[in-house]
């Protein structure tokens, strides 16, 4: 039965790849025809048109106003409109696609937010972002983030020769990495990083790699040794990140320094061995790349995190094509690895608009992991119930977020919308960013909200929470950071809710009349959207006090930056501010603002994205 199932999967993979090749060939032919038509129309012009179709370009130019143009009919007493002009990337003719504005940048095209930024001073950043989108932020991150991790620090070692089977091997022993420390770091790893991204099986590791390196030491070109070193590095990082000395007074970044994170010596030992196994096409190689990516993310190396995840995802594709000697547990581990890569890629795609790998096309026929009888926390059944369900819930929630993004914000290819919108009558429906007006928009928002409510209602009891007490967590068992697991799930839920209801907030924020003139559904939707931005548990203690253990920090930082900008715009809107005071409470808003600002301020010295956001919110060009 397993063989038959694998054959069906292989056939589906072949069909997907064939379809992709055919589509690419068709696209290439169309592009060649369009280029020929454009060249004929230009009559020898040296400047080629932008790399989009001619029809789309004409429609785009016809509809697109100046992104810096603030319409006083929309925003009341704002400055008069500026002259129309096309924003282009420096040195190219490429036009900004509004869908490129992701994460914190998604609100930069809002006139109310633009007014705040222009009045605050960082107009150079605003112009560059509206011209380049996420590409500007990524370049800024690479240029201004702290330097690469030091590679001059290693563990003291001694060499030994061992005989395994009929072969003699040269292996390395690290005297400072004792058997007791290996056990401690193993427990710490499986109670932190592997809780959130369960790419390893505890029993497999404890019964396989761990006793092997204890007894025989570490070998070059050995995936077993590489995985063990990465587990120990992340385990040590988890210990220091939760209990170590803060890098600055009151900081939630603990252990090591901004330049030298904890366990760097162990991690460098792992990095030095990576090249010897880089051609491997096994699940173990995929796992190693994911673990290495997690270490980089804990040090706020976001680009490295994304790049290694892409490498892991590409390796999964190879494993699916060439490996067939699978039992049920092996299949489950492949599923864990695949969906871990898929979820991480989704974060970067949704928040930074970084491309996803081709492995995304497999998601319709790669089953979810079932977390078979290999239990990671057999003596803690409550943990066993939480972490697999949490991972599966995150996968499901990711689909809701993508659906909301596609339905509400993805641009119709042949009808690019303007960045600034016309005034909306009091009896009209919301106009989401990125889509033209449609009578079915309220139905889409209502259906997306209903699906999100169903998702939450189906959560097991161990994962449920009270909206009025979002940052409350049960006590953590020893070596298990359940609070981070739960905080991430809750915050991503509120992010999805914000995404779905954001069109209502845009309408209310830019309405020309008093807030009370809005239809009840728009008014209620705007208030619910504001509520979804408040009191995210990831920014509250005890979770925020161990930031090195929190995954995907760039996403939280970007979300907080966009929320703070929107909340400032809400405060400047008299009618909407009164409604928030009545139905939400200014005290809740003020508390949320303080913790979000504290989060960004804490990370600004170690994270380039946070440093940029901090300067932006302080009214400085960075």
The main sheet orders its strands as: 1-2
* Most strands sheet: 2 strands, antiparallel
User: How does the helix and strand content classify structurally?
Assistant: mainly alpha
Q: What's the number of domains?
A: 2
Helix content: 55-70%
Measured between the Cα atoms of the first and last residue, the distance is 59 Å
The pLDDT mean sits at 79
Radius of gyration: 26 Å
**Low-confidence parts, pLDDT < 50 over ≥5 residues?**
1-6, 39-98, 413-437
Number of strands: 2
Shape by Cα distribution:
globular
Please write the string of helix (H) and strand (E) elements.
HHHHHHEEHHHHHHHHHHHHHHHHH
- Counted by DSSP, the helix tally is 23
Percent of residues in beta strands:
under 5%
Verbal overview:
The protein is an all-alpha fold. It folds into 2 domains: about 160-375, no CATH class; about 385-615, no CATH class. The chain has helices at about 1-40, 55-65, 70-75, 110-120, 125-130, 135-145, 180-190, 195, 200-205, 210-215, 225-245, 265-275, 285-300, 300-320, 330-350, 380-410, 440-455, 480-510, 520-530, 555-570, 575-585, 585-605, 610-615; strands spanning about 160-165, 165-175. The protein has a two-stranded antiparallel sheet with strand order 1-2. Helix 14 runs antiparallel to helix 15, helix 16 runs parallel beside helix 18 and helix 18 (about 480-510) runs antiparallel to helix 19 (about 520-530). The longest helix has about 40 residues, at about 1-40.
